[in-house]
């Protein structure tokens, strides 16, 4: 009687083992797919972080063609085009990203930045208006400030610049932009204060140093500010100050500043020499 039961039980055991084997194969396949997906994500992040922008564009173009449903690759292509200085070409790609079911609010913000870099301010404003008001990030308010600037909505711009500067641990860039906005409005003292504040966060930001000199020279204060600078930077800042002085009719002062710039620069300072020759 025992032998009679052995065969059915072996069949049951075989079926159970077969089921386990199928389940394990499916589980292994899912694990491999997960690892492959993580590898793709890591590769995409690496291409964005360290790769040459042109190489990244090539990589993401091919990856997007091979995986048309993966938003990660379309987003990577759009960002790579931006990094490569081709914002106009990134706009249609960002539009595809924004239309994807898995799109994020930040994708619309980056689309707005692509529009701004393409000098399409109306579309940038529309893209930002489509971002939920609860989505509050440094980049969103930085771009909102720039759009308000373009429309000469100064109070609105100041408000957005202030919010943006409070949402980042590295506010030098946005403070410099805010200062330049003040400079274009003729608020030279306000601009000077913001450039100095930007330099307190990033003493190496040459754009802020140059803008600070512009703000001071516009007030006919023709002495260099007490900020950290190299010898070459000192010569370039003297040159900037000289040009402002000449433009404002202070030709003699401008000539002296050009001579100082030429004497300060460790190599031949072609731009300053050309300007001085033109004065003579």
CATH superfamily of one domain: Tetratricopeptide repeat domain
Report the CATH topology name of one domain. Answer: Serine Threonine Protein Phosphatase 5, Tetratricopeptide repeat
DSSP summary, beta strand count: 0
In the CATH hierarchy, what is the class of one domain?
A: Mainly Alpha
Question: Share of helix among residues?
Answer: over 70%
**Which stretches of 5+ consecutive residues score pLDDT under 50?**
1-5, 7-18, 28-38
Major sheet characteristics: none
Shape: elongated
How is the secondary structure organized here?
Elements: H1 2-50, H2 53-66, H3 71-83, H4 87-99, H5 105-117, H6 121-129, H7 138-150, H8 154-166, H9 172-185, H10 188-201, H11 206-218, H12 231-247, H13 251-264, H14 270-279
Helix pairs in contact: 1-3, 2-3, 3-4, 4-5, 5-6, 5-7, 6-7, 7-8, 7-9, 8-9, 9-10, 9-11, 10-11, 11-12, 12-13, 13-14
Summarize the structure in words:
Pfam families: TPR_16. It comes from Pararhodobacter oceanensis. By secondary structure, this protein is mostly helical. It has a domain at 48-135: Serine Threonine Protein Phosphatase 5, Tetratricopeptide repeat (Alpha Horseshoe). Helices cover 78% and strands 0% of the residues. Helix 1 runs parallel beside helix 3 (71-83), helix 3 packs antiparallel against helix 4 and helix 9 packs parallel to helix 11 (206-218). The N and C termini lie far apart (122 Å).
